[in-house]
Amino acid sequence: MTKRVILLEEGTAEMKGLMGSKGADLAELIHAGWSVPAGFVVTTECCREFCTRLGHLSGEGEEEIVNAIRHLEQQTGKFFGHSENPLLLAVCTDQDRASATATQSLLNVGLNDVTVEGLARQTGDRLYALQCYLDYLKEYGQLVYGIPSEFFTEISSHVKGLDEAELELTITEFKYLMEAKGRTPFPQDVQLQFKEAVRAVYLSQRVKPSRSQDEIVRKPYYISSEQGAPVLIQTMIHGTCGDSSGIGTIYTHNPLTGERGITGQYVPTGNTSQADHGLERLRNDEPELYARLLEIGSQLETHKGKCRKSPL
Fold this sequence. Notes:
- With about 300 residues, the chain is of the alpha+beta class.
- It folds into 2 domains: about 5-215 and about 225-240, 2-Layer Sandwich (Dna Ligase, domain 1), CATH 3.30.1490; about 240-305, D-amino Acid Aminotransferase, Chain A, domain 1, CATH 3.30.470.20.
- It is about 45% helix and about 15% strand.
- It has 10 helices and 9 strands.
- The strands form 3 sheets. The protein has a 5-stranded antiparallel beta sheet with strand order 1-2-7-3-4, with helices on both faces. A two-stranded antiparallel ribbon has the order 5-6. A two-stranded antiparallel ribbon has the order 8-9.
- A hairpin with an 8-residue loop joins β5 and β6.
- α4 crosses α5 (about 125-145).
- The longest helix has 19 residues, at about 165-180.
């Protein structure tokens, strides 16, 4: 029987062939008692089915994914597409199957003109919610529609991110661009968004958007039906936003040299200009939190029994 979907809490470290390295590692951390955002993996077997069906999921595959999303709703108390308390999802490839420059992912899948207001209420920060929506539209336009990034950059070059009206106008302009270049409007239907996100992440490993501004083409790259490319879906964690909040990727060893020591990127909420020095700012402004990161990194390495280059 084809195994199409595996909940993270049902996975094991031995299931890397189906779940991919990252999915299996997260499953192992859950069993070890670590706090991991709820999620599931669309397995390599489902990818094989996807390839043989010329880019379409079977009815059974779609049903299993819908049931998995319902499970996430039960776990989080949030609901996919809900106007007041929306569940938002991250959709990405297994990290070990993509290079650092080719990893394709979509964050905040489920945002639309209605749920963005729900995110604003959840976080208490409408400016932050609008920025998330703007970033999502750009990522969606690039990955799903194949629109080169420079089209979006040209539109948003004037945005400072400090004014709601300015962000709302840019969001509208992004949607106009996507309809003009992609020939269909950005979907407000979150189920359609998710379906297209999963398909696009699959296809991102065998198609490449043109960098030309004169045309948008997709060039096929061969992936046989024997190959698998699992897709990881996890709930987005936004929490309470403010000056002490942020996002980032942290490594316990330099991913290029293997040198020991915490490295990575931390972006304070609403201050993307400090992306390059955010981790240094975190160490200076929040020494206890920074020390906690070091402690968690050490615990992870001890748990794995060896040094790893996986992000925290």
